[in-house]
Protein backbone atom coordinates (compact mmCIF):
# COMPACT_ATOMS: atom_id res chain seq x y z
CA UNK A 1 0.00 0.00 0.00
CA UNK A 2 1.23 3.47 -0.83
CA UNK A 3 0.51 6.91 0.53
CA UNK A 4 -2.21 7.18 -2.12
CA UNK A 5 -3.98 4.11 -0.74
CA UNK A 6 -7.65 4.70 0.05
CA UNK A 7 -7.37 2.16 2.85
CA UNK A 8 -4.54 4.10 4.53
CA UNK A 9 -6.43 7.36 4.14
CA UNK A 10 -9.54 5.96 5.81
CA UNK A 11 -7.53 4.35 8.61
CA UNK A 12 -5.57 7.58 9.15
CA UNK A 13 -8.79 9.61 9.35
CA UNK A 14 -10.22 7.03 11.74
CA UNK A 15 -7.10 7.14 13.95
CA UNK A 16 -6.99 10.94 14.00
CA UNK A 17 -10.69 11.14 14.82
CA UNK A 18 -10.35 8.62 17.65
CA UNK A 19 -7.29 10.36 19.11
CA UNK A 20 -8.93 13.79 19.00
CA UNK A 21 -12.19 12.47 20.45
CA UNK A 22 -10.44 10.60 23.26
CA UNK A 23 -8.21 13.58 23.99
CA UNK A 24 -11.22 15.89 24.29
CA UNK A 25 -13.02 13.26 26.38
CA UNK A 26 -10.08 12.98 28.77
CA UNK A 27 -9.84 16.77 29.09
CA UNK A 28 -13.58 17.17 29.72
CA UNK A 29 -13.66 14.31 32.24
CA UNK A 30 -10.69 15.76 34.08
CA UNK A 31 -12.31 19.18 34.18
CA UNK A 32 -15.65 17.77 35.39
CA UNK A 33 -13.91 15.68 38.05
CA UNK A 34 -12.00 18.71 39.28
CA UNK A 35 -15.19 20.77 39.41
CA UNK A 36 -16.99 17.97 41.25
CA UNK A 37 -14.19 17.58 43.80
CA UNK A 38 -14.01 21.33 44.35
CA UNK A 39 -17.74 21.52 45.01
CA UNK A 40 -17.56 18.48 47.27
CA UNK A 41 -14.61 19.86 49.24
CA UNK A 42 -16.18 23.30 49.44
CA UNK A 43 -19.36 21.79 50.82
CA UNK A 44 -17.34 19.77 53.32
CA UNK A 45 -15.34 22.79 54.49
CA UNK A 46 -18.51 24.86 54.86
CA UNK A 47 -20.01 22.05 56.96
CA UNK A 48 -16.97 22.10 59.26
CA UNK A 49 -17.36 25.88 59.65
CA UNK A 50 -20.97 25.37 60.72
CA UNK A 51 -19.97 22.65 63.21
CA UNK A 52 -17.21 24.83 64.68
CA UNK A 53 -19.58 27.81 65.03
CA UNK A 54 -22.07 25.62 66.88
CA UNK A 55 -19.43 24.44 69.40
CA UNK A 56 -17.59 27.72 69.81
CA UNK A 57 -17.30 29.42 73.21
CA UNK A 58 -14.95 31.96 74.77
CA UNK A 59 -13.14 32.07 78.09
CA UNK A 60 -12.98 35.13 80.31
CA UNK A 61 -10.01 36.50 78.37
CA UNK A 62 -11.86 36.20 75.08
CA UNK A 63 -9.87 33.24 73.78
CA UNK A 64 -11.97 31.01 71.48
CA UNK A 65 -12.63 27.48 72.75
CA UNK A 66 -13.97 24.51 70.78
CA UNK A 67 -16.05 22.04 72.71
CA UNK A 68 -15.31 18.45 71.70
CA UNK A 69 -13.49 17.22 68.62
CA UNK A 70 -14.47 17.21 64.99
CA UNK A 71 -15.11 13.83 63.40
CA UNK A 72 -12.30 13.86 60.84
CA UNK A 73 -9.08 12.49 62.42
CA UNK A 74 -6.93 14.63 60.16
CA UNK A 75 -7.66 17.60 62.43
CA UNK A 76 -5.78 15.77 65.24
CA UNK A 77 -2.82 14.59 63.13
CA UNK A 78 0.13 16.99 62.94
CA UNK A 79 0.21 18.43 59.43
CA UNK A 80 -2.59 16.00 58.61
CA UNK A 81 -3.80 18.08 55.68
CA UNK A 82 -7.04 19.36 57.28
CA UNK A 83 -6.91 22.41 59.55
CA UNK A 84 -9.14 24.82 61.49
CA UNK A 85 -8.37 28.15 63.10
CA UNK A 86 -10.48 30.72 64.98
CA UNK A 87 -9.43 34.36 65.20
CA UNK A 88 -11.23 36.59 67.73
CA UNK A 89 -10.96 40.06 66.24
CA UNK A 90 -12.27 41.63 69.43
CA UNK A 91 -9.69 40.14 71.83
CA UNK A 92 -7.09 39.46 69.15
CA UNK A 93 -6.72 35.93 70.47
CA UNK A 94 -6.94 32.74 68.44
CA UNK A 95 -7.15 28.96 68.63
CA UNK A 96 -6.32 26.28 66.04
CA UNK A 97 -6.47 22.53 65.45
CA UNK A 98 -3.73 20.20 66.63
CA UNK A 99 -2.92 19.51 62.95
CA UNK A 100 -1.43 23.03 62.68
CA UNK A 101 0.79 22.28 65.67
CA UNK A 102 2.80 25.47 66.28
CA UNK A 103 1.89 27.29 63.07
CA UNK A 104 -0.79 29.92 62.62
CA UNK A 105 -2.38 30.46 59.23
CA UNK A 106 -1.71 33.84 57.71
CA UNK A 107 -4.62 35.18 55.70
CA UNK A 108 -4.83 38.07 53.27
CA UNK A 109 -5.79 41.38 54.86
CA UNK A 110 -9.43 41.96 53.94
CA UNK A 111 -12.81 42.53 55.52
CA UNK A 112 -15.28 39.94 54.23
CA UNK A 113 -18.94 40.52 54.85
CA UNK A 114 -20.54 38.93 57.89
CA UNK A 115 -21.89 35.43 57.32
CA UNK A 116 -20.43 35.09 53.84
CA UNK A 117 -17.90 32.39 52.96
CA UNK A 118 -14.64 33.82 51.73
CA UNK A 119 -12.48 31.48 49.62
CA UNK A 120 -8.81 31.91 48.83
CA UNK A 121 -5.51 30.02 48.76
CA UNK A 122 -2.43 30.56 50.86
CA UNK A 123 0.65 28.79 52.17
CA UNK A 124 0.14 26.22 54.86
CA UNK A 125 2.43 24.02 56.94
CA UNK A 126 5.69 22.98 55.26
CA UNK A 127 5.04 25.58 52.56
CA UNK A 128 2.31 23.62 50.82
CA UNK A 129 -0.62 25.29 49.08
CA UNK A 130 -3.90 25.10 50.95
CA UNK A 131 -7.49 25.96 50.08
CA UNK A 132 -9.10 28.19 52.72
CA UNK A 133 -12.78 28.78 53.53
CA UNK A 134 -13.58 31.39 56.18
CA UNK A 135 -16.64 33.08 57.63
CA UNK A 136 -16.82 36.24 59.72
CA UNK A 137 -19.40 35.91 62.47
CA UNK A 138 -20.60 37.90 65.52
CA UNK A 139 -21.15 35.94 68.70
CA UNK A 140 -23.32 37.49 71.46
CA UNK A 141 -22.50 36.78 75.09
CA UNK A 142 -23.02 38.26 78.55
CA UNK A 143 -19.52 39.71 78.28
CA UNK A 144 -20.35 41.49 75.04
CA UNK A 145 -20.37 40.73 71.36
CA UNK A 146 -17.31 39.06 69.89
CA UNK A 147 -16.42 39.25 66.19
CA UNK A 148 -14.55 36.13 65.05
CA UNK A 149 -13.28 34.52 61.90
CA UNK A 150 -13.71 30.77 61.56
CA UNK A 151 -11.18 29.28 59.13
CA UNK A 152 -11.11 25.75 57.74
CA UNK A 153 -8.42 24.74 55.22
CA UNK A 154 -7.37 21.63 53.31
CA UNK A 155 -4.05 20.80 51.69
CA UNK A 156 -4.31 21.08 47.88
CA UNK A 157 -1.70 18.34 47.45
CA UNK A 158 -4.34 15.83 48.44
CA UNK A 159 -6.73 17.19 45.84
CA UNK A 160 -4.01 17.12 43.19
CA UNK A 161 -3.17 13.52 44.11
CA UNK A 162 -6.82 12.60 43.70
CA UNK A 163 -6.84 14.34 40.31
CA UNK A 164 -3.69 12.51 39.22
CA UNK A 165 -5.11 9.14 40.23
CA UNK A 166 -8.33 9.89 38.41
CA UNK A 167 -6.41 11.04 35.30
CA UNK A 168 -4.37 7.83 35.33
CA UNK A 169 -7.48 5.65 35.61
CA UNK A 170 -9.20 7.63 32.87
CA UNK A 171 -6.09 7.41 30.63
CA UNK A 172 -5.99 3.61 30.99
CA UNK A 173 -9.71 3.35 30.26
CA UNK A 174 -9.46 5.68 27.26
CA UNK A 175 -6.43 3.76 25.94
CA UNK A 176 -8.38 0.50 26.02
CA UNK A 177 -11.36 2.24 24.45
CA UNK A 178 -9.10 3.79 21.80
CA UNK A 179 -7.60 0.42 20.86
CA UNK A 180 -11.08 -1.05 20.60
CA UNK A 181 -12.27 1.84 18.42
CA UNK A 182 -9.20 1.56 16.17
CA UNK A 183 -9.80 -2.17 15.78
CA UNK A 184 -13.47 -1.52 15.05
CA UNK A 185 -12.46 1.17 12.55
CA UNK A 186 -10.03 -1.20 10.84
CA UNK A 187 -12.75 -3.86 10.56
CA UNK A 188 -15.16 -1.23 9.24
CA UNK A 189 -12.67 -0.10 6.58
CA UNK A 190 -11.92 -3.69 5.55
CA UNK A 191 -15.59 -4.54 5.21
CA UNK A 192 -16.37 -1.22 3.54
CA UNK A 193 -13.63 -1.64 0.92
CA UNK A 194 -14.35 -5.30 0.25
CA UNK A 195 -16.56 -4.48 -2.78
CA UNK A 196 -13.56 -2.72 -4.38
CA UNK A 197 -11.50 -5.87 -3.84
CA UNK A 198 -14.25 -7.91 -5.49
CA UNK A 199 -14.25 -5.49 -8.43
CA UNK A 200 -10.48 -5.89 -8.72
CA UNK A 201 -10.79 -9.69 -8.76
CA UNK A 202 -13.57 -9.48 -11.35
CA UNK A 203 -11.46 -7.23 -13.59
CA UNK A 204 -8.53 -9.63 -13.20
CA UNK A 205 -10.82 -12.47 -14.28
CA UNK A 206 -11.91 -10.42 -17.29
CA UNK A 207 -8.30 -9.63 -18.18
CA UNK A 208 -7.35 -13.30 -17.96
CA UNK A 209 -10.35 -14.28 -20.08
CA UNK A 210 -12.24 -16.15 -17.34
CA UNK A 211 -15.18 -13.73 -17.45
CA UNK A 212 -16.68 -11.09 -19.72
CA UNK A 213 -18.57 -8.95 -17.18
CA UNK A 214 -18.55 -7.99 -13.52
CA UNK A 215 -21.42 -10.12 -12.28
CA UNK A 216 -20.81 -9.77 -8.51
CA UNK A 217 -23.66 -8.19 -6.55
CA UNK A 218 -22.40 -4.86 -5.23
CA UNK A 219 -23.66 -2.26 -2.73
CA UNK A 220 -25.80 0.56 -4.11
CA UNK A 221 -22.92 3.04 -3.84
CA UNK A 222 -20.66 0.90 -6.05
CA UNK A 223 -23.30 -0.33 -8.50
CA UNK A 224 -23.04 2.76 -10.80
CA UNK A 225 -19.29 2.14 -11.17
CA UNK A 226 -19.86 -1.52 -11.98
CA UNK A 227 -22.54 -0.61 -14.52
CA UNK A 228 -20.18 1.87 -16.19
CA UNK A 229 -17.37 -0.72 -16.38
CA UNK A 230 -19.72 -3.32 -17.84
CA UNK A 231 -21.00 -0.79 -20.36
CA UNK A 232 -17.43 0.05 -21.32
CA UNK A 233 -16.59 -3.65 -21.75
CA UNK A 234 -19.69 -4.16 -23.89
CA UNK A 235 -18.81 -1.14 -26.05
CA UNK A 236 -15.21 -2.33 -26.42
CA UNK A 237 -16.32 -5.81 -27.38
CA UNK A 238 -18.68 -4.33 -29.94
CA UNK A 239 -15.90 -2.16 -31.41
CA UNK A 240 -13.55 -5.16 -31.63
CA UNK A 241 -16.26 -7.25 -33.25
CA UNK A 242 -16.88 -4.52 -35.84
CA UNK A 243 -13.14 -4.21 -36.47
CA UNK A 244 -12.85 -7.94 -37.08
CA UNK A 245 -15.85 -7.84 -39.39
CA UNK A 246 -14.30 -4.98 -41.36
CA UNK A 247 -11.05 -6.92 -41.63
CA UNK A 248 -12.92 -9.97 -42.90
CA UNK A 249 -14.86 -7.85 -45.39
CA UNK A 250 -11.67 -6.20 -46.59
CA UNK A 251 -9.98 -9.56 -47.06
CA UNK A 252 -12.95 -10.95 -48.95
CA UNK A 253 -12.96 -7.81 -51.06
CA UNK A 254 -9.42 -8.58 -52.19
CA UNK A 255 -10.25 -12.12 -53.24
CA UNK A 256 -11.81 -11.17 -56.56
CA UNK A 257 -8.89 -8.92 -57.66
CA UNK A 258 -6.39 -11.59 -56.60
CA UNK A 259 -8.28 -14.23 -58.53
CA UNK A 260 -8.24 -11.92 -61.56
CA UNK A 261 -4.48 -11.43 -61.22
CA UNK A 262 -3.97 -15.19 -61.07
CA UNK A 263 -6.00 -15.53 -64.27
CA UNK A 264 -3.91 -12.79 -65.90
CA UNK A 265 -0.74 -14.63 -64.88
CA UNK A 266 -2.00 -17.82 -66.51
CA UNK A 267 -2.85 -15.96 -69.73
CA UNK A 268 0.58 -14.34 -69.76
CA UNK A 269 2.21 -17.71 -69.28
CA UNK A 270 0.11 -19.15 -72.14
CA UNK A 271 1.40 -16.32 -74.30
CA UNK A 272 4.99 -17.17 -73.41
CA UNK A 273 5.50 -14.24 -70.98
CA UNK A 274 6.87 -16.55 -68.29
CA UNK A 275 8.96 -13.95 -66.44
CA UNK A 276 6.12 -11.44 -66.19
CA UNK A 277 3.73 -14.24 -65.21
CA UNK A 278 6.11 -15.42 -62.46
CA UNK A 279 6.39 -11.87 -61.08
CA UNK A 280 2.60 -11.48 -61.04
CA UNK A 281 2.15 -14.88 -59.36
CA UNK A 282 4.81 -14.08 -56.72
CA UNK A 283 3.19 -10.72 -55.98
CA UNK A 284 -0.25 -12.30 -55.82
CA UNK A 285 0.97 -15.01 -53.47
CA UNK A 286 2.66 -12.44 -51.21
CA UNK A 287 -0.52 -10.37 -51.06
CA UNK A 288 -2.56 -13.49 -50.28
CA UNK A 289 -0.21 -14.49 -47.45
CA UNK A 290 -0.21 -10.99 -45.98
CA UNK A 291 -4.01 -10.90 -46.03
CA UNK A 292 -4.11 -14.30 -44.32
CA UNK A 293 -1.71 -13.04 -41.66
CA UNK A 294 -3.77 -9.92 -40.94
CA UNK A 295 -6.93 -12.02 -40.80
CA UNK A 296 -5.26 -14.31 -38.26
CA UNK A 297 -4.22 -11.31 -36.15
CA UNK A 298 -7.74 -9.92 -36.35
CA UNK A 299 -9.17 -13.19 -35.07
CA UNK A 300 -6.96 -13.20 -31.96
CA UNK A 301 -9.08 -12.83 -28.82
CA UNK A 302 -7.58 -10.18 -26.56
CA UNK A 303 -10.41 -10.04 -24.04
CA UNK A 304 -13.46 -12.01 -23.07
CA UNK A 305 -14.18 -15.47 -21.76
CA UNK A 306 -12.20 -18.35 -23.25
CA UNK A 307 -13.40 -21.87 -22.47
CA UNK A 308 -11.03 -24.75 -21.81
CA UNK A 309 -10.38 -26.87 -24.87
CA UNK A 310 -9.15 -30.46 -25.12
CA UNK A 311 -5.69 -30.61 -26.72
CA UNK A 312 -5.54 -34.14 -28.12
CA UNK A 313 -8.77 -34.05 -30.19
CA UNK A 314 -7.73 -30.72 -31.76
CA UNK A 315 -4.29 -32.05 -32.75
CA UNK A 316 -5.79 -35.20 -34.21
CA UNK A 317 -8.28 -33.15 -36.21
CA UNK A 318 -5.50 -30.99 -37.71
CA UNK A 319 -3.34 -34.06 -38.45
CA UNK A 320 -6.25 -35.80 -40.17
CA UNK A 321 -6.79 -32.75 -42.36
CA UNK A 322 -3.08 -32.48 -43.30
CA UNK A 323 -2.92 -36.20 -44.14
CA UNK A 324 -5.49 -35.56 -46.85
CA UNK A 325 -3.26 -32.94 -48.53
CA UNK A 326 -0.74 -33.80 -51.27
CA UNK A 327 2.24 -32.86 -49.02
CA UNK A 328 0.96 -34.67 -45.95
CA UNK A 329 -0.46 -37.92 -47.28
CA UNK A 330 2.92 -39.69 -47.23
CA UNK A 331 4.11 -38.29 -43.86
CA UNK A 332 4.30 -40.36 -40.68
CA UNK A 333 2.68 -38.43 -37.81
CA UNK A 334 3.36 -39.47 -34.22
CA UNK A 335 1.22 -37.67 -31.60
CA UNK A 336 2.39 -38.10 -28.02
CA UNK A 337 -0.09 -36.30 -25.80
CA UNK A 338 -1.60 -37.31 -22.47
CA UNK A 339 -5.35 -37.81 -22.51
CA UNK A 340 -7.80 -35.33 -20.99
CA UNK A 341 -5.31 -32.44 -21.17
CA UNK A 342 -6.92 -28.99 -21.42
CA UNK A 343 -5.70 -25.43 -21.96
CA UNK A 344 -7.61 -22.16 -21.62
CA UNK A 345 -7.20 -20.54 -25.01
CA UNK A 346 -9.49 -19.64 -27.87
CA UNK A 347 -10.03 -22.63 -30.13
CA UNK A 348 -9.47 -20.60 -33.33
CA UNK A 349 -6.21 -19.22 -31.92
CA UNK A 350 -5.02 -22.71 -30.97
CA UNK A 351 -5.94 -24.00 -34.40
CA UNK A 352 -3.98 -21.12 -35.96
CA UNK A 353 -0.87 -21.96 -33.90
CA UNK A 354 -0.87 -25.73 -34.34
CA UNK A 355 -2.10 -25.57 -37.93
CA UNK A 356 0.72 -23.30 -39.08
CA UNK A 357 3.43 -25.20 -37.18
CA UNK A 358 2.22 -28.58 -38.46
CA UNK A 359 1.78 -27.24 -41.98
CA UNK A 360 5.33 -25.89 -41.83
CA UNK A 361 6.58 -29.30 -40.59
CA UNK A 362 4.71 -31.09 -43.41
CA UNK A 363 6.25 -28.75 -45.96
CA UNK A 364 9.86 -29.37 -44.88
CA UNK A 365 9.77 -32.91 -43.36
CA UNK A 366 11.10 -35.86 -45.31
CA UNK A 367 8.99 -38.57 -43.74
CA UNK A 368 8.48 -38.20 -39.99
CA UNK A 369 6.74 -35.61 -37.78
CA UNK A 370 6.49 -35.91 -33.98
CA UNK A 371 4.08 -33.91 -31.85
CA UNK A 372 4.79 -33.97 -28.11
CA UNK A 373 2.52 -32.37 -25.51
CA UNK A 374 3.28 -32.69 -21.79
CA UNK A 375 2.96 -30.76 -18.54
CA UNK A 376 5.74 -29.29 -16.43
CA UNK A 377 5.49 -26.90 -13.48
CA UNK A 378 1.88 -25.82 -14.14
CA UNK A 379 2.42 -25.21 -17.86
CA UNK A 380 1.65 -27.29 -20.96
CA UNK A 381 4.62 -27.61 -23.31
CA UNK A 382 4.06 -28.21 -27.05
CA UNK A 383 6.88 -29.52 -29.25
CA UNK A 384 6.65 -30.19 -33.00
CA UNK A 385 9.65 -31.81 -34.72
CA UNK A 386 10.38 -32.96 -38.22
CA UNK A 387 13.19 -34.85 -39.96
CA UNK A 388 13.75 -32.29 -42.69
CA UNK A 389 16.77 -30.07 -43.33
CA UNK A 390 15.65 -27.45 -40.75
CA UNK A 391 16.87 -23.87 -40.77
CA UNK A 392 20.24 -22.33 -39.93
CA UNK A 393 21.25 -21.04 -36.49
CA UNK A 394 21.26 -17.46 -37.75
CA UNK A 395 17.68 -17.84 -38.95
CA UNK A 396 16.66 -19.25 -35.54
CA UNK A 397 18.27 -16.32 -33.73
CA UNK A 398 16.49 -13.80 -35.94
CA UNK A 399 13.16 -15.60 -35.50
CA UNK A 400 13.49 -15.58 -31.69
CA UNK A 401 14.15 -11.82 -31.45
CA UNK A 402 11.06 -9.94 -30.23
CA UNK A 403 9.57 -7.79 -32.99
CA UNK A 404 11.36 -9.64 -35.85
CA UNK A 405 9.19 -11.71 -38.19
CA UNK A 406 10.67 -14.59 -40.17
CA UNK A 407 8.79 -13.67 -43.31
CA UNK A 408 10.32 -10.19 -43.16
CA UNK A 409 13.90 -11.16 -42.36
CA UNK A 410 14.55 -14.65 -43.74
CA UNK A 411 13.89 -15.51 -47.34
CA UNK A 412 11.82 -18.59 -48.00
CA UNK A 413 10.49 -19.10 -44.45
CA UNK A 414 6.92 -18.20 -45.37
CA UNK A 415 4.45 -16.31 -43.21
CA UNK A 416 3.19 -19.16 -41.01
CA UNK A 417 5.72 -18.70 -38.19
CA UNK A 418 5.04 -14.97 -38.16
CA UNK A 419 1.33 -15.69 -37.62
CA UNK A 420 2.21 -18.08 -34.79
CA UNK A 421 4.36 -15.40 -33.17
CA UNK A 422 1.51 -12.88 -33.47
CA UNK A 423 -0.98 -15.21 -31.79
CA UNK A 424 1.40 -16.29 -29.00
CA UNK A 425 2.33 -12.69 -28.32
CA UNK A 426 -1.34 -11.97 -27.54
CA UNK A 427 -1.10 -14.66 -24.83
CA UNK A 428 2.25 -13.29 -23.58
CA UNK A 429 4.11 -16.38 -24.80
CA UNK A 430 7.00 -16.93 -27.20
CA UNK A 431 7.77 -19.37 -29.97
CA UNK A 432 11.11 -21.13 -29.51
CA UNK A 433 12.99 -22.76 -32.39
CA UNK A 434 15.83 -25.29 -32.18
CA UNK A 435 17.43 -28.32 -33.73
CA UNK A 436 15.39 -31.50 -33.64
CA UNK A 437 16.86 -34.87 -32.72
CA UNK A 438 15.33 -36.03 -36.00
CA UNK A 439 17.59 -33.66 -37.90
CA UNK A 440 15.08 -30.97 -38.79
CA UNK A 441 13.40 -28.12 -36.91
CA UNK A 442 11.91 -28.25 -33.44
CA UNK A 443 9.29 -25.60 -32.67
CA UNK A 444 8.05 -25.31 -29.08
CA UNK A 445 5.84 -23.08 -26.97
CA UNK A 446 3.92 -23.28 -23.69
CA UNK A 447 0.52 -22.31 -22.27
CA UNK A 448 -0.95 -22.30 -18.73
CA UNK A 449 -2.05 -25.72 -17.53
CA UNK A 450 -5.75 -26.41 -16.85
CA UNK A 451 -6.43 -29.60 -14.93
CA UNK A 452 -9.80 -30.93 -16.10
CA UNK A 453 -11.40 -32.82 -13.21
Essential attributes:
9 helices; 3 domains; 453 residues; 14 strands; 20% strand; 51% helix; Heat Shock Protein 90; alpha+beta
How would you summarize this macromolecular structure in one to three sentences?
The protein has 9 helices and 14 strands.
How would you characterize the overall build of this protein?
The chain has 453 residues and is α+β, with helices and mostly antiparallel strands. The chain has 3 domains: 1-208, no CATH class; 210-305; 307-453, 2-Layer Sandwich (Heat Shock Protein 90). It is built from 9 helices and 14 strands. Strands 8, 9, 10, 11, 12, 13 and 14 form a 7-stranded mixed beta sheet that branches. The chain has a 5-stranded antiparallel beta sheet with strand order 4-3-7-6-5. Strand 1 (56-58) and strand 2 (64-66) form a beta hairpin. Mean pLDDT is 82; it is low at 402-413.
Tell the overall outline. Answer: rod-shaped
Helicity range of the residues? 40-55%
The total number of structural domains is 3
> Main sheet, how many strands, which sense, barrel?
7 strands, mixed
Structure class:
alpha+beta
Task: Note poorly predicted spans.
Answer: 402-413
Q: Strand-residue fraction?
A: 15-25%
Amino acid sequence: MTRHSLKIRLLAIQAITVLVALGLTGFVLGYLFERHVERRISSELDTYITQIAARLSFDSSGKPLLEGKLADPRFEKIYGGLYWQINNETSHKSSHSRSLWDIALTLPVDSPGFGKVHIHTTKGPEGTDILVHERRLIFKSSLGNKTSRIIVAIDLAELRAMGSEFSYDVAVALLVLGLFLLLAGWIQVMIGLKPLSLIQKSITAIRSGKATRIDTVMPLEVTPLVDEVNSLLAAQEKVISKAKSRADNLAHGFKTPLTALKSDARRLRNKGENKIAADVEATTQLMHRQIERELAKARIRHIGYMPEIAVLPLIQSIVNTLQRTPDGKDKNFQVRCIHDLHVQVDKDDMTEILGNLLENAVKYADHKIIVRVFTKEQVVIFQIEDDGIGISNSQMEMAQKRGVRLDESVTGSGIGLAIVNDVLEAYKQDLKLGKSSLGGLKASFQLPFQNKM
